[in-house]
Amino acid sequence: MLILKNIDDDGWHFATSRTSRKGRELAEAPRAAMNFYWPGLGRQVRVAGTVTELSAEASAADWHERPRADGSDNPHWQLYALKPAEIEFWQASNDGQHVRHRVGPDGGPLG
Q: Which domain range does residue 30 map to?
């Protein structure tokens, strides 16, 4: 589980160590999906696409903004951006007829 750090023209930002399992997997296959779930509302948003590494300066700034960062550097810390290829909105329904909308990066519907 990760924290959504920001959303801008580069994509949806998140960070982790490049030496973590997630960091190693992203180095091998730079694709990921994010899932945001609100069980009380029966709603979910899923974002999937390609992932790029952001700059060393942005990664260092993110590391230093962390509440527990002690001022030291972490050379393995990496800020990433997921560029959505697909965004899916899902709404649960008591009758099992859940509503699902899939849109592409331009906001247009996907098959």
A: 6-103
pTM assigned to the model: 0.89
CATH number for position 59: 2.30.110.10
pLDDT, tens digit, 9 for 90 and up, residues 53-93: 999 999 999 999 998 878 889 999 999 999 999 999 999 99
State pLDDT tens for residues 3-42: 999 999 999 999 999 999 999 999 999 999 999 999 999 9
Residue 48 domain flag = yes
Q: Output the six-digit token pair for 83.
A: 């560029």
Residue 76 corresponds to which tokens in the numbers above? Answer: 């393995």
User: For residues 78 and 81, what is the distance between their CA atoms, to the nearest angstrom?
Assistant: 10
Does some domain include residue 74? yes
- The number of distinct structural domains making up the chain is 1
CA–CA–CA angle 57, 63, 65 (5° rounding): 105
Residue 1 belongs to some domain of the structure: no
